[in-house]
Structures
1.
Amino acid sequence: MSEPQFIRLLGLLYRSAESPAFWLPFLQALQETFRSHVANFYSQDLPTGSAHISASTAPTEANDLYVRHYSQLHPYYRKLVECPTMQPGLVVTDHTAMPTSELRKTEFFVDFLNRFDCHRALQMTPFREGNLLGNLAVLRSDSVGPYTEAEVRLMLELVPHIRRALRISKRMELLGALDCTVARLNFGVVAVDTAGRCIHTNQAADQLLALKDGIVLSDGFLSVAENVSERKLKALISSAVHITAIAGQMLIQRPSGKRPFWLLVAPSRDYPLADSGFVAGVVFLADTELQAALSSKLLYTLYDLTPAEAHVAIGIAQGKRMGELCTELRVSFSTIRTHLNSIYQKTNTNSQADLTRLLVTGPVGSLEEQI
Amino acid sequence: MTQSEMLELIDLIYRAAEWPEWWHLFVKRLGTAFGSHAASFYSQRLDLGAAIIPFTTAPAEANELYLSYYAKINPFFRGLCQRRMTAGSVFADHQMIPTEEYRRTEFYNDFASKFEFHRGMNLVFSAEGTVVGNIAVSRSDSVGLFTETEVEAMTALVPHMRQALSISQKMHRIQALDFVLDNLTSAVVLISRQGRYLAANLAACEILDSRDGIALTGGRLKAGDYRQNQLLTAAVDSAIGWSSQTGGRVRIDRPSGKRPFMVLLSPVRYTPLLHADGVAAVAFLSDLDLQAERSAALVGELYQLTRSETEIAVGLAQGNHIDDLVAQLGVSPNTVRSHLKNIFKKTGVASQSDLMRLMVAGPIGIVESSSPRDSRPGRAPPASREDLTRE
């Protein structure tokens, strides 16, 4: 294969490392390069024989059959079970893995490979974690012929790149998971670069900034309407994102008259590689007005409260007075007292303030119901 | 430049996408490939005329001069030229400014020519707002001007540079988010599709290592109490997608007698999972006592409470009664009451319950309120910790 072709393959490969949707175009380019009609990227668990197909150009029917049944019969993996020392990075062809005459007698070949014209195979195992093997395979028919030495060498040249691309794609999956996790927090998280420009906001930050109540996002920068606070905010962010890397916090008054927003800036741990697009600091934003969204269902399940007790507990946590609760529930003061004592016992608290604290402190309470 | 030199450069670009240290070797090889004695990876702020040069083979003196003065008068980032510096563009000096005109500039005479940077070629890999990211090579007149073919070769690097930078930015964001999570008092544990532990933030490591009601056993979260463990396992299974439910909350009692942990299991849904052992769920564990205590300290700082006032706030946040505080702090009930009044006044709340709500309303988890970069107290990785930023 010529260098430009190889370079094109690399371009597609690293694009898939970042966005999984590109694995298919990469596999198509790969099968073209290897004059094959199928290319697969899949993982296989050695002892159980169970397989997971990550991306494939094979017909759906073939993949279904493989996952449901034939993965258990794959003669190559059955051999490997007895050879636990196999190193990742290995490249094999059907005829180097086992004698062709032997392979062609197996049920796997006769009923499965043969049916999809996949007589010949060239496979690399870019990674191995315990008993889990990650594999990349191209397959073709006998009419094209066995895979040659040159093709094996080419596949070997791809090994370090495939391994790197898979490592990167794993990190990208982790990024997705971290984004998801940060999206669940009940306070705003805004990542900024060295210029102070926002490069990432979580769900709570979006909601809070959308209120346009004292703090907004303007041209990609956090901005406060009031002059003195604006200067203070800029100073806080700039000292956090520059080499001094000092954290700080402030209150942001709201024109609506509601309780102020609480803003905290922390420098990022690593110095950014470039000026733009790289996270240099993180701004945390919280609404001190936040009303705990409490669900009574949660109180039944977590603390075995009765519906009436849950009502009282939520009322207290929302700052209601006992008198108000008497009217709401149409019961006497002493009944509320009794409920409250029972709540204290069940939740292991000892005062209204303590109960409030328990109920409104949750990891990610307020956003939970929306997801 | 030969095809194999090209291949080597592209290989280095993708290595650098994963580990930025490789940019050092990349600029070196890039210089060699283009017969240039200087090659740099730098970004330029158009509005400030400032620059950052993270990787370069140019002499230190040249870099210092450029950063301190010549970045401001670099003619290629001014006027009409500036507008042509769009993402993906590659220009040789003479394609941008007629050589005769360029050689009359202060920038050329006092700076470029001094270091024999007579000829230059610049690749813009990113242009966002006023920040332009570049790769540049410079060489002397004795090697000659950059040819069309060389500009083409440099242009062929553009898509790879952009792809690598995009990956690199995301890698950096992982570290930033990891940092966010490490600063929470809520413990966060990432769980694989097989229900196994993958990674945890700092708070989670502390909780799991203390083995106070919940721990890692055989790579899985396990509660000490039999019934609670069943609920926990069911919540994990549902969060990773083995049932129609989507996670749930579980209470975990602690043998130490401290307030129980609240565990919230929730699925992680983004793109289809490529890896069989990818992240499928996240568990949030919270230690209510610790959270309230830390956030009370932050509230104290934020509202400029005095030390005694902060002590009272922290005490209340720990679940103490006013009477307990009187005994603990060894002061009179009146003193405590007057402190409390001041706290109410400073924070603008009307009752103890409101104060509790205020304290937990903030970014409850943020533990370190001020500590300079690279000088954070060293933290020994707990036995169960697998750093999120490392493989």
2.
Amino acid sequence: MKLSRRHFLVLMPAAAIAWKAVLAGTPDQAPNYKLSEHWWGMLIDVPKCIGCGNCVRACQIENDVPDGYFRTWVERYHVHDEDMTNPEVISPDAGKEGFPVVKEDAGKYFFVPKMCNHCSDSPCTQVCPVGATFVTPDGVVLVDPKYCLGCAYCVQACPYGCRYIHPEKKVADKCSLCYHRITKGLTTACCESCPTGARQLVDLKNPQDAIHEFLKTHSVQVLKPQMATGAKAYYNGLDGSVR
Amino acid sequence: MMCSLAILINEQAKLLNGVEGFMYPNEIGLQWSVLIVLYPFITGLVAGAFILASLERVFHVEAVKPTYRLALLTALSFLIVAPLPLQLHLGHPERSPEMYFTPHSTSAMAMFGYVYLWYLMAVLVFEIWLDYRRDIVLLSQSTRGPLGWIYKFMTLGSDNISPRSLHIDEKVGWIITLIGIPSAFLLHGYVGFIFGSIKANPWWSSPLMPVVFIFSAMVSGIAGVLLIYMAVTKLRRQPIDMRCVDTIAMYLFYTFLIDFSLEMLDLIHRIYEADESFRSLDFMVHTRLYIPHIVVQIIVGTATPLILLFITQVVKLPERVRKQMYVTAGVLALLGIFAMRWNVVIGGQLFSKSFLGYTTYKMTLITREGSLVAAGLALLPLLILWVLVKLLPPWSPDEKSQHAIGD
Amino acid sequence: MFKDAGHLFRFAGLFVLAFVVFLVVRGYVVPKSFGQYGHYRGDALNEIAAHPVKFAGHEACEACHTDVLATKSKGKHAHVNCEACHGPLAAHADDPSASTPVKPDTAVLCARCHTATAAKPRGFPQVDTKDHSNGVPCETCHQPHNPAITDAGGAK
């Protein structure tokens, strides 16, 4: 990497100013972020996932996720072609350090990243007794750590198993869709670190977002549609054996 | 098909952290411990004891009158302890007043604060106060010292025990008991709804859940009062009113029969429909839940007491034998109902929501949510009951009694 | 009639008193922003959004490292973001002189994505690292920013 001194002297302050502006943005302070202009979701392109575990590690670093608990994880499925109801699934340490090597066999393998689905009809917010977890006006399901009692009712109510009780803070915790990043114009930590583009943040209210064209041209599903949760994590190429 | 699933799971089973098969990473540790098993058991006893008391007050079943006051005090003792397992379980118990200040109207759990307070003050304490008011006023006048001040406070400054005022108490008490019956159903039915309304968990999600909870609560409450009455009467060296316990046993039998039928209906429905969760749940019941569910809840805790009670209903047996059978049936019934709560709460967390795996509940001994605390909380109501019986004796002085009121 | 029901009014009075106390306490205790957007504390949104950022995002890196961007956009790693390999670098982007990022160990890093296994998508470039390079470090032949091997050897 070669930067001339002149380049350096010009670019440094410019970058610093730009970066400070990015860091300073909060929903009410940044005049350019309006809650009503966004409706966040995630697109997960299953055939692109290589099970590298970058997303799990990045999320843990970005959000200080405690050991043994996971805001996101990757599952590896092994399906024998005639029996979709009995897949073998593993998620060693949530896929954080990747997966063991396997040899070719008669079945098929694929990876499925999982996370909070930021449901628009979320069953977890329905059962919270005090209003400590909620759907924001811009479509993100969040937990208010200062208000949560730690009763774990929301953990029981989530059909996807994405919640846990933080072992030190003793409150409910889960994927926040990197709310502190997306409100500043950044993407989520998992999407940023995914090398294949298997995970992409989408803003359904943005007419320029590529998701609209993608949904028109691909077959996309949500997890457990029979639960009618209004899940907003859209899976492209999801196999019928995925639980 | 069941066999192939069992073989599959066992073949790939790596017992890591007690996990067999696959569980979502966050599901491996259980969220709700034995304390959450204890809570519905305790509120069930409250509701059941109250229903027994209301049998006499509202439905004029004279035979159970000797247990009326005792049943109310039993209900109060257990109700006082009821919030404790919940408080010990919460991550932030100091924030529990939030349920009173900002209850979320869509959450069944948010009802808890208000239903509990309503039942405690507007039903139980009110009814006990009305029934005991004459005794309280007399005791406030005859007792000296700090205990006398307690009685004085309990009179709320009114020493009016004229026949007219007592008559009003009687009428109002009747209305309160009447309101108390649906209130008792609400107090325990909402707990059933807390589980029954969770679509994410097929072991819990069922419209039958509140009904099953209510009827099993009645079984535990009736059995509990039966045992307490027999124990307390024995301790007072008084003769047990056999007409009373025979009647209680009869109600216990029929309530248990309904409870058993409801649970069998749930089971048969599950087996018949065999939806996507069935194989996983069936496997769980046959393996991890075999002892608590098949052995303790069904065989020992339901079928055996039902058979014992059935025999006492159809065969004329001598008093001594009946007493032994009632005690045995009562104890086994309580065990069976506790096992039922265990199987619902713990069982509902032992299987993965992916239906591909199982975990283990590692109950600790000395921690905040361990078995010692649970045992202590289960026995605490009996201690409180002892204090209440001393403070507000259920027996009037004209009954044959070794102790005078106010001792 | 009311004379004989006086005690009931006293009991009811207790309820009314408790209710009034409850309302007063509630007025103090419930957070002011509660209910601003829904049944939750409105301030929570800003508090959560104010969490520190650890990954700078590729645009922050590209503002300075334009030459790397130029190299990368010509090759197969064009869509692999900087921090996917280099880890969280918001501290470096904030003050480049204060923290210098450590170069990742290619033996571990490249293997994570490119170790051959039947589980990965068939079209994805993957090798058995032992057969492929016999222990020779990846960057001997592959420049990570543009991993294609050129006639001249490719590596810097």
